[in-house]
Amino acid sequence: MSPSPSPLLNLELKGFKVYEKNFTLQETEQTRLAAQLFSRRDYYKVLLMESKCLIHYAHQSLELDGQYLFFTNPHIPYSLELRTDRLRAHACLFTEEFVKAADRSESLHQSPLFRIGSPPLFKLPAQQAEYVRSIFHKMLAEQQGDYPFKGDLIRTYVQLLIHEALHLQPVDTFFQPKNAATRLTSLFLELLERLFPIELPTQQLPLKTPQEFADRLAVQVNHLNKAVKQVTGKPTSAHIAGRILDEAKALLQHTDWSVASIAACLGFEYPTYFNNFFKKHTGHTPLSLRRKA
Q1: What pTM does this model have?
Q2: What are the residues facing 93 on neighbouring strands?
Q3: Using CA atoms, how far apart are residues 3 and 21, in angstroms rounded to an integer?
Q4: Integer distance in angstroms from the first to the last C-alpha of the chain?
Q5: How far apart are CA 114 and CA 71, in angstroms?
Q6: 148 in the same domain as 22
Q7: Are 100 and 184 in the same domain?
Q8: I want to staple 15 with a disulfide (CB 3.0 to 4.6 A). Which of 95, 150, 208, 292 is the partner?
Q9: Can you give the CATH number for the domain in which 52 is found?
Q10: Residue 171 placed within a domain
Q11: Is 201 within a domain?
Q12: If residue 17 lies in a helix (H) or strand (E), which one and from where to where?
């Protein structure tokens, strides 16, 4: 059986998508399909995983062999490496807006299951796994149906998954892989790169300091700094400053935005702070670079 097209294509249109995967992979398909389904996304996800795999979450790893319920948020990169040629999984993906349509006052990232730093993985006994699987099947049926209030019903099913997990103890046997520093550095650099490019003058850089990156990756800032320095030879702050500088040069040369607008986009409270930063690293003011260009 060949894999179907990516189930993520219309997520942005509906704010929700549920899918089931259950087939044997050809050896050449395993890496490609794993990357397609399980790479970091800008959506919340609840995943019922029933295939043997290795999960990497932030700078931690855990080998799964059984039935697990896994919760992810958009702020922590993760990946899954299949350790078998049989893929069996159910997943639902949704946006904050989809869930907020139920007038919940609490933001999803404050939920115990999606909050940064919360353990996101739960091992399911066979009977409970069957019940969780039945919830996914009900969501699949509603997704295909024409019931006018199916959005409300699906939100209820998502809440059932959340409450089912809250009854369980999270898995606490994450281990630090031997190359933990390399993995954490890779996650940091990936997260840094995902902040760019800046495409609109109203856009603002959400992360600017090592502490903010560490919070997003759910690690201590000292641990992040040590790993990045060990692997790259440069401190975390140097990577952030260098990428901001590259973006500043691009915006100065290829847009007509004011220097003040560019400074605000890149997280500088005042244009003078941006001018001083730029001159310190290039020897030129932003305007002089623009005139040269």
Answers
A1: 0.60
A2: 17, 45
A3: 8
A4: 55
A5: 7
A6: yes
A7: no
A8: 95
A9: 2.60.120.10
A10: no
A11: yes
A12: strand 16-24
Helix ranges (DSSP H) in 110-220: 126-144, 150-166, 180-194, 210-216
- Token pair 């005042």 in the structure block, residue: 270
**Long-range contacts, stretch 50-54, CB < 8 angstroms, 24+ apart:** 50/88, 50/89, 50/129, 51/82, 51/83, 51/84, 51/86, 51/87, 51/88, 51/89, 52/82, 52/83, 52/84, 53/80, 53/81, 53/82, 53/83, 53/84, 54/80, 54/81, 54/83
Please indicate, yes or no, if residue 139 is contained in any of the structural domains: yes
285 and 212, same structural domain?
Answer: yes
Number of domains in the chain: 2
Q: Is residue 141 part of a domain?
A: yes
Residue 252 is which amino acid? L
